[in-house]
Design brief:
Blueprint: E1 2-8, E2 11-17, E3 22-28, H1 39-45, E4 49-54, H2 73-87, E5 92-97, H3 99-107, E6 114-120, H4 130-133, H5 150-160, H6 168-175, H7 185-195, H8 201-208, E7 211-217, H9 231-237, E8 241-244, H10 251-254, H11 256-270, E9 275-281, E10 290-296, E11 304-314, H12 316-322, E12 340-348, E13 360-364, E14 378-382, E15 386-388, H13 395-400, H14 402-414, E16 422-426, H15 431-442, E17 446-451, H16 454-462, E18 467-470, H17 476-484, E19 489-494, H18 501-507, E20 508-516, H19 526-530, E21 534-537, H20 542-546, H21 551-565, E22 578-579, H22 583-592, E23 599-602
Protein name: Alpha/beta fold hydrolase
Keywords: Hydrolase
GO molecular function: hydrolase activity; oxidoreductase activity
Length: 604
């Protein structure tokens, strides 16, 4: 964030600007406040949007005005017009608090660059309705006094913010309400009311036809909240009238998370085609695991595909990231999780010839460091990570496949699988396991699967396993003797990993292959050394994390497609699916161990 300045016809103004490149948001403050009053919004949105926060003349770090009339509604409106013209802003959403809100309304007839107006503690009024819009001044005129002593400042502060939500000292520090406000400002505002003709703000908004939203503190002592029940205001704002609980006159400071949620929703209304909703990890770790964010949608770059996301699925590393267990794998904030996607191509970038708008695609494409994921309405994905969806699958079924099917393929390939080999799959009905069972059987192997229940044993047999092993009741020595005559399996695919790896090695024949998808630093390799085992560690996330060899994943999906269409490979889905809005519940369910098959989330 930068502090900059501009020389306008009205005077020298200071403003804050963030580094985001999305649509422009202009924040204008109220009486005796400054640009820093919007610091929560600038920090939250500044990486995604171009945010500008202006200090009016006489406020913050802007210079004083040459005459007090510049502090009136009309004077502040003139500064907004000059500022927008000077920076050549277009399609701007203006967020105006109190005085700033009224100033932007009054400026609208002379502006063509405004896409939307969000008014904070600023009910639109005219000469006839001013008495209805506002309550008797609870500060008893102090908000228009040239000087305020300590007690008077505290009295004003209590009207502006609920000290149970925000300490008064914090509000005074943030808005710099006395020390950094010129002594002529407040009398100048009052003089503007007395001397100038009030604009008909209701009529201005009605005639503008632009998107409008109003946010008011539910306990705002300056505003008559019942005024918003008037039909003209309902016609202007529609469903966009919000009262934030326990807030006074500065809800953007008192309840920034709630306020920012409304603001992001409003941005989506103003730019419906260029903003997408994503469910991102809640940084604060209180309340829901995921929160809605509305963020600018970038155009697809070279080799990228824009996808309308229809479904995704939960993989173990997804819920481990959401629980904070794998911070080194998490996407950058705001973090959008989920690697698996199924959806429809909206648009393609340069050098994309495999896909076109309207194609149904699936893939394991992101949700890790360096690549945002699929828990969003629209996403960008590397073409090399995608494949055309099998024609016999629904979006739900397709979303269940990419990660587990690619992992199973890579594992069997690493284990040099050949027809006639005896293969053991640990976790035969798990995500990767049920894919490995079906693929190994298709490739001509004799396949056995470990299971933890009678029901899962039936599922494994239905998927093609030649036999099952109940690991709770049969030791490794016993089933190796029973099935292989004590020789061991040619290939053991261990989808459980870690503490199970020694068991997998015990089950393998001399010189055989052990494939695992999860290994910690406590694995004892004595058995592997003694038996001359070939160990293979599969990390299918590595291409996405490193950016290397990613073409292989798309090629695997291409080879899987005819197998799936021929009915040789069928995804196992848990009967319970979730909506995107239930992502937190989906993660809890997937991590509980109760799911049988992949847990699917459907968008819409």
């Amino acid at each position: 964030m930068k502090r900059l300045s501009k020389t306008l016809p009205s005077g020298n103004v200071s403003y804050l600007e963030t580094t985001g490149t999305g649509p422009t948001l202009l924040f204008v403050h109220g009486n005796s406040s400054c640009a820093e009053a919007f610091h929560y919004q600038l920090e939250h949105l500044g990486c995604s949007y171009r945010c500008l926060a202006l200090d009016f003349l006489g406020h913050g770090e802007s210079s004083p005005a040459d005459n007090a009339s510049a502090y009136s509604f009309a004077g502040c409106s003139e500064q907004i017009i000059e500022f927008i013209d000077e920076l050549q802003l277009e399609n701007v959403i203006v967020v105006g608090h109190s005085l700033g809100g009224h100033a932007i309304i009054d400026a609208l007839p002379r502006l063509e660059a405004i896409a939307g107006v969000l008014l904070v503690g600023a009910p639109p009024f005219n000469g006839d309705t001013a008495g209805e819009a506002f309550l008797p001044d609870p500060s008893e005129g102090l908000i228009f006094a040239a000087e305020l002593d300590g007690d008077q400042l505290t009295k004003v502060a209590k009207e502006f913010v609920n000290e149970d939500k925000l300490p008064l000292s914090d509000w005074i520090s943030v808005v710099k309400s006395v020390d950094n406000t010129h002594s002529s400002v407040r009398p100048g505002i009052l003089a503007g009311f007395s001397e100038g003709e009030l604009q008909d703000e209701v009529k201005i908004l009605q005639q503008s036809g632009i998107c409008a939203m109003s946010i008011v503190g539910e306990q705002d002592g300056f505003i008559n909240n019942d005024y918003f029940n008037a039909e003209p205001l309902k016609a202007i704002f529609g469903e966009n009238i919000f009262f934030i609980d326990d807030c006074h006159h500065c809800p953007h400071l008192e309840a920034p998370e709630v306020f920012n949620g409304y603001l992001e929703g409003f941005i989506k209304q103003c730019f419906p085609k260029s903003i997408t909703r994503s469910l991102v990890l809640n940084e604060h770790k209180d309340g829901d695991i995921f929160i809605d964010r509305y963020m600018p949608l970038a155009e697809p770059g070279v080799g990228e595909v824009m996808i309308e996301v229809k479904a995704t699925s939960v993989n173990p590393f997804d819920y481990k990231i959401s629980r904070g267990e794998l911070p080194h794998l998490a996407p950058e904030h705001p973090a959008v999780l989920h690697s698996d996607v199924a959806g429809v191509v909206i648009k393609v970038g340069e050098q994309v010839c495999e896909f076109k708008p309207g194609d149904k695609v699936f893939g394991c494409v992101g949700g890790v460091k360096g690549r945002q994921g699929a828990l969003t309405d629209v996403m960008l994905a590397d073409r090399l990570l995608l494949g055309l969806m099998p024609e016999n699958l629904s979006f739900k079924q397709a979303a269940a496949l990419p990660m587990v099917a690619i992992t199973a393929w890579e594992g069997l390939e690493a284990g040099d699988l050949k027809a006639g080999m005896k293969v053991l799959v640990h976790g035969g009905t798990g995500g990767v396991g049920h894919m490995a069972v079906q693929l190994a059987k298709h490739m001509g192997a004799e396949v056995y699967a470990t299971v933890g229940s009678v029901e899962k044993g039936k599922l494994a047999l239905e998927m093609g396993a030649d036999g099952i092993i109940h690991y709770h009741t049969e030791d490794v020595e016993d089933y190796v003797s029973r099935i292989t005559g004590g020789c061991g399996f040619d290939l053991v695919f261990d989808t459980v990993g870690n503490e199970n790896i020694p068991i997998a090695m015990q089950a393998c024949t001399v010189g055989g292959h052990v494939v695992t998808t999860l290994a910690n630093n406590k694995v004892d390799l004595k058995i592997a050394s003694g038996r001359r085992l070939n160990l293979h560690f599969i990390n299918m996330l590595w291409p996405m994390l490193s950016g290397r060899e990613i073409r292989a994943h798309g090629e695997i999906l291409k080879q899987l497609k005819p197998l799936i269409e021929a009915g040789k490979l069928n995804p196992l889905l848990d009967p319970q699916s979730f909506l995107f809005e239930q992502a937190g519940l989906a993660h809890e369910f997937a991590s509980s161990g109760e799911a049988v098959g992949k847990v699917i989330l459907v968008n819409g």
